Protein: Phosphoribosylaminoimidazole-succinocarboxamide synthase
Organism: Halotalea alkalilenta
Amino acid sequence: MEKRNELYAGKAKSIFATDDPDLLIMHFRDDTSAFDGQRVEQLARKGMVNNKFNAFIMGKLREAGVPVHFERLLSDDESLVKRLDMIPVECVVRNVAAGGLCRRLGIEEGRDLNPPTFELFLKNDALHDPMINESLADSLGYATIEQLATAKRLTFQVNDVLRQLFLDAGILLVDYKLEFGVHKGELLLGDEFSPDGCRLWDANTREKLDKDRFRQGLGGVIEAYEEVGRRIGVDFG
Ligand code: 5GP
């Protein structure tokens, strides 16, 4: 596998072409961003931790039958993935109220959401990722109704798998964001699943073990990611 030119640099990852047009390399950098990229800091080991965390989770999801773009780990901070045409929409499931939902509806953090909720947001930093819905995404050409229905079904399937996986390690999966893309006509889970894009609380103490530690200046960000990883069985080497 030959690494070629950089195609895209996001806030925390960079994407490189390879000699195979169907495959890309995802490089996890140490950059950590919040507030739509307005705050960016380097956190030592973050690229390695998120790369290995994501590889572990993607492996579990693939075993459970979720179609994923992840192929395999290449190095401490790089993974091989299938090339996707990304759908510019974020799919969010919430099991417990936190973050944007509490701000928007004025409800208290920590309230159980039963059944879990499903929301769509447009990926657009300049507009602060505004909430959209299936009708808007369809009419504006971001995705078809069929793709959105598949993305919703897969996002809930991910909840079934990961909620239990984290609970077995004494961790609550509060909420998370997924992104999907199309590879040769098939909708696949893309991007990453790491503590950067979900909320994870200790089930007993409700201590935050995710990117909210960075957003809220609580410190111990990577230590918390590593703690979650160790508890669920990620091998950080
Ligand atoms: P909220 O709507 O409460 O801000 O976010 C809901 C969940 O989706 C949280 O777990 C949050 O980390 C994740 N999320 C939402 N938008 C983004 C985003 O643009 N980037 C990342 N990394 N995660 C996001």
Observations:
- The pocket of guanosine-5'-monophosphate is lined by residues 90, 92, 98-101, 129, 175-177, 196-199, 211 (CB under 6 Å).
- The mean pLDDT is 98.
- The two ends are 23 Å apart (CA to CA).
